[in-house]
């Protein structure tokens, strides 16, 4: 997908996104509707500065955007836990 094409627009077919999904268990190679996904990332504690190893520099929380994605996305990772919990992994837009 995308053949390494840097000109692909954000959210376009063939692009990847790390996203949050709140409803179902996510199994690699499954597909989900973009309407159930929100772009996501990790948040580092405010006490931790770049290069500060005192707390290991570990991420402590998953944060998400407020806008759902369009299209259909292939699950490129795995996040299986209680369905009520939010999950985050990598997705590839396929349509």
Walk me through what this model shows.
With 95 residues, this protein is mostly beta strands. It has no helices and six strands. It has strands at residues 16-21, 31-33, 37-43, 61-64, 72-75, 87-93. Strands 2-5-6-1-3-4 form a six-stranded antiparallel sheet, with no helix packed on it. The radius of gyration is 15 Å and the shape is globular. The mean pLDDT is 79.
TL;DR of this structure?
With 95 residues, the chain is mainly beta. The protein contains no helices and six strands.
Protein topology:
Layout: E1 16-21, E2 31-33, E3 37-43, E4 61-64, E5 72-75, E6 87-93
Antiparallel strand pairs: 1-3, 1-6, 2-5, 3-4, 5-6
Order of helices and strands: EEEEEE
Average pLDDT confidence is 79
The quaternary state of the protein chains shown equals single chain
- Lateral arrangement of strands in the main beta sheet: 2-5-6-1-3-4
What are the low-pLDDT stretches, counting only 5+ consecutive residues below 50?
none
Largest sheet: 6 strands, antiparallel
Total of DSSP H or I helical runs spanning 4+ residues: 0
What is the number of strand segments? 6
Shape verdict? globular
Between the first and last Cα atoms, what is the distance in angstroms? 11 Å
Strand share of the residues?
25-35%
Give the helix proportion (percent range): under 10%
Rg? 15 Å
């Amino acid at each position: 997908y995308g053949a390494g094409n840097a000109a692909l627009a954000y959210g376009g077919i063939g692009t990847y996104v790390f996203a949050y999904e709140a409803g179902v268990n996510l199994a690699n190679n499954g597909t989900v509707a973009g309407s159930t996904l929100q772009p996501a990332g990790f948040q580092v504690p405010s006490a931790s500065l770049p290069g500060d190893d005192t707390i290991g520099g570990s991420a402590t929380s998953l944060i998400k955007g407020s806008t759902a994605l369009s299209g259909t996305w292939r699950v490129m990772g795995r996040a299986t836990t209680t369905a009520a919990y939010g999950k985050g992994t990598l997705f590839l837009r396929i349509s």
